[in-house]
Amino acid sequence: MKKIIFALFVLSATTQAFSQQEEKPRYGNIGPAYIGGMEFWPFDDSIPGSPYPDRVLWSYGEGSDPAKACMLKGNKQLVKWLEDPQSPVAVALKEYAEIGGTSSFFQWTNDYTKAPSQAARGTRKSRVWWWSGSGSETSGWLKYESTVLPDGTCQNPKEDQIVSYLESRYHLFGAVTPSRVDNQRRREGSESSPQSESHPQSESSSSSDGR
Fold first, then answer.
1. What is the average pLDDT across 76-84?
2. Nearest 5°: CA angle at 201, between 168 and 208?
3. What separation in angstroms does the CA of 82 have from each of 64, 78, 140?
4. 3-class SS at 154?
5. pLDDT in tens, 122-175
6. Can you state the angle between helices 183-192 and 88-98, rounded to 10 degrees?
7. Is 116 in a helix, a strand, or coil?
8. What's the number of CA atoms in the CB half-sphere (13 Å) around residue 139?
């Protein structure tokens, strides 16, 4: 009987460990893009100012539970878009990469669970934007920025914001907005997501934001 109980305990522990392993974000080549890594920005009212650079966390296991849950949720949504070749995000991203833009994502999650005062003064936006340390338009990362509010609410980038942002950069490569982007689906997504960003920041501010 003891052997049976012990075996069940081992099986339960193994299953739980496997389940936890499965719940980690996915990285690598996915669809037309590449997800290269992640970072947490843990804001804290007891430590004024930005977490960057000294307090930024670069390992998924270091994040708070709400921050990890939000990053995982955003990762699953991004992967779902990338794996569907008909999704507006995948279509726009494929076009963007073909004309010279980067298709590499880096996930970033702002954590305000310990910073209600800072959050009350304004939080960072949930959006996708381009960043490059070199300033080269063909290199760098598409930052997939999410935000966790003090009450644990998770805000991830919206589909229409991502597509609109990529389209706004086509002219940098001498390209025009492709007609294959499904504008109707984008409009429907925007109508169902009133908090989505329809006016992303300019290129000059995006390329240096947070750095």
1. 98
2. 105
3. 27, 6, 19
4. strand
5. 999 999 999 998 888 889 999 999 999 999 999 999 999 999 999 999 989 887
6. 130
7. helix
8. 5
Cβ(186)–Cβ(163) under 8 Å? yes
Q: What is the pLDDT of residues 88-135, one digit of tens each?
A: 999 999 999 999 999 999 999 999 999 999 999 999 999 999 999 888
What is the pTM (predicted TM-score) of this model? 0.76
Q: What is the dihedral of CA 154, 70, 108, 112, to 10 degrees?
A: 50
The 10 Å Cβ neighbour count of residue 24 is 13
Strand-pair category, 141-148 with 127-131: antiparallel
Of 26, 155, 164, nearest to 83 (Cα)? 26
Identify the three-state secondary structure at position 191.
Answer: helix
Amino acid at 25: P
Q: How far apart are CA 44 and CA 47, in angstroms?
A: 5
Per the CB < 8 A criterion, the answer to whether 165 and 205 are in contact is no
**3-class DSSP assignment, residue 131:** strand
The DSSP element (H or E) to which 40 belongs, if any, is strand 33-44
- Pairing label, strands 28-30, 33-44: antiparallel
What's the token pair of residue 148? 């966790």
